Amino acid sequence: MAEKYQENAIVLEQKEIASGIFRLVLQTKEIAAQAKAGQFVSVYSKDPSKLLPRPISLCEINKTKGTLTLVYRVTGENTGTEEFSRLQKDDTVRILGPLGNGFPIDAAEGKKAFLIGGGIGIPPILQLAREMKADKQMVLGFRDSLFLMDEFQAEGQVYVATEDGSAGTKGNVLDAIRANGLSADIIYACGPTPMLRALKAYAEEHEMVCYISMEERMACGIGACLACVCKTTDKDAHSNVNNKRICKEGPVFDAREVEL
Amino acid sequence: MNTSVNLCGVTLKNPVMTASGTFGSGEEFSEFVDLNKLGAVVTKGVANVPWPGNPTPRVAEVYGGMLNAVGLQNPGIDLFCKRDIPFLKKYDTRIIVNVCGRSTADYCEVVERLADEPVDMLEINISCPNVKEGGIAFGQDPKAVEAITNEVKKVAKQPVIMKLSPNVTDITEMAKAAEAGGTDALSLINTITGMKIDINRRCFVLANKTGGMSGPAIHPVAVRMVYQTAQAVKVPIIGMGGIMNAEDAIEMILAGATAVSVGTANFTDPSVTEKIVTGIEDYMRKFQVNDIKELVGAVHER
């Protein structure tokens, strides 16, 4: 088990890159050096009435500089994410990480991979795209306005779907896959549960391995409180029931082992 | 300076313990806390057989607190004895096992199973608001409290702590009933039943609809109940409910608690328990308190 660190990270940059979507670059001491694509950090509020850390996925990891980029959606007024969106250069923010396990990148070796992101599940796919050497096609599903497109396009062929049809295929990521006649041998995905459910079914139908990154409301973020469990097909060795901890055994799972 | 306390014959190096359900069996938190520094680790509740717990979402943040409805998911006593107790034995801290059940027989089965295990005390959870059977059903009627305490005491080899619910009209009645049943100590308070509604989706935030509220917002309620209970019974009290720092812990001790448990604060800062131990020492130095026992129940009128 890799080590986890609690740090006061220093804000290097903060920018709203689409409506309500922010990109925060943090200088860390240890976390970036240890982090892998698909892991997340707990971000703590400075407001003492907000007790629980916010789990946010890692969008970019720069091990040389020791920086992490978090791309996150502000979920409403007076929320923790709204507080984070007000952080400015040189401010500090307490974070804990890296948490969870990353994407099993080696599983794609010699295969053709779909890297699929939906909504605020898109950011962790960027670091995955950067680390993955295998032949890859990125399929991104947005609600309306696009973000991180330049960064993704630097990594290879990108296909886009938008709910309102303002860019790419109108519809979801599977609509974009079908409209562009795409195929692959393995799937890596992060996004809303309906998308993951559809991809699990798609992968079963096409007999593909499919790794999905899941999300759930968390409290401790380190595997102790059992808040963020998901149903699993087999009995889990730790819990001794059909539940795995998303923060600890996940957030990435083989779609065949979880019930959605 | 003496920080050690005696809980019905068991000596703790300091009064700081972990609140059941927030700390697992200590393994995950041991990366952030030196468990050797804690008075005791209170494990997450364990039943005779594995329990899957409730559907998700199981937690929700509320102003100054949180709601949880985990539903006592646990791996069952067999795996617990094989894995969790040996883990805790590696540390120089007291081991308190929290026990849950759906029936009196379930509780007694776990307590008997623990009789020959290297466990220092048993905390009996008769106050979980998130399970349909057992849990709080045993903790809201003085007769039921006394009866289950009696049954547990018959089979227990270790000192017994009954953990009380605040979701009652008069907690001192439950405390007296547990004392009459022969309990060695009391833990209070468990969480206060609450609810959160998502007004955008017009749905309950928790899959269980209701959940147990914890965190600093309930701390004054806990302090009041610990104070009232300390006036009503002779057995030692472990005070808990929204302790976020050493000041909150001291307040609980002044109200009448011999020891304290720290729960939700672990989520806000995974190393908080160790900081509370240090903070209590700082307070004792500042106010020249030679023995922490001088502080237990030492609150007085202005």
TrEMBL record, chain A:
Please name the GO terms that the record assigns under molecular function. 2 iron, 2 sulfur cluster binding; electron transfer activity; flavin adenine dinucleotide binding; metal ion binding; oxidoreductase activity
Kindly list the cofactors needed.
[2Fe-2S] cluster; FAD
Assembly information from the UniProt record: Heterotetramer of 2 PyrK and 2 PyrD type B subunits.
Protein name per the record:
Dihydroorotate dehydrogenase B (NAD(+)), electron transfer subunit
Q: Where does FAD bind?
A: 54-57, 71-73, 80-81
Cite the cofactor comment: Binds 1 [2Fe-2S] cluster per subunit.
Show the Pfam families listed in the entry: DHODB_Fe-S_bind, FAD_binding_6, NAD_binding_1
Q: Fetch the HAMAP family from UniProt.
A: DHODB_Fe_S_bind (MF_01211)
This protein's pathway:
Pyrimidine metabolism; UMP biosynthesis via de novo pathway; orotate from (S)-dihydroorotate (NAD(+) route): step 1/1
Which family does the entry's similarity section mention? Belongs to the PyrK family.
| Alphabetically ordered keywords of this record | 2Fe-2S, Electron transport, FAD, Flavoprotein, Iron, Iron-sulfur, Metal-binding, Pyrimidine biosynthesis, Transport
> Per the database record, which ranges form the FAD-binding FR-type domain?
4-105
Q: Which InterPro entries match?
A: Cbr1-like_FAD-bd_dom (IPR008333), Cyt_c3_hydrogenase_gsu (IPR012165), Dihydroorotate_DH_ele_sf (IPR037117), Dihydroorotate_DH_Fe-S-bd (IPR019480), Dihydroorotate_DHASE_ETsu (IPR023455), FAD-bd_FR_type (IPR017927), FNR_nucleotide-bd (IPR039261), OxRdtase_FAD/NAD-bd (IPR001433)
Q: Which PANTHER family match?
A: DIHYDROOROTATE DEHYDROGENASE B (NAD(+)), ELECTRON TRANSFER SUBUNIT, DIHYDROOROTATE DEHYDROGENASE B (NAD(+)), ELECTRON TRANSFER SUBUNIT-RELATED
Its GO biological process terms? 'de novo' UMP biosynthetic process
TrEMBL record, chain B:
Residues annotated for substrate binding in this entry: 44, 68-72, 125, 190-191
A Gene Ontology molecular-function term?
dihydroorotate dehydrogenase (NAD+) activity
Q: Where do the catalytic residues lie?
A: 128
Task: List all membrane-crossing ranges.
Answer: none
Pathway info: Pyrimidine metabolism; UMP biosynthesis via de novo pathway; orotate from (S)-dihydroorotate (NAD(+) route): step 1/1
Binding, FMN: 20, 44-45, 98, 125, 163, 189, 215, 241-242, 263-264
The highest taxon in the source lineage is Bacteria
Q: Name one Pfam family in it.
A: DHO_dh
Belongs to which family? Belongs to the dihydroorotate dehydrogenase family. Type 1 subfamily.
Instruction: Provide the protein name.
Output: Dihydroorotate dehydrogenase
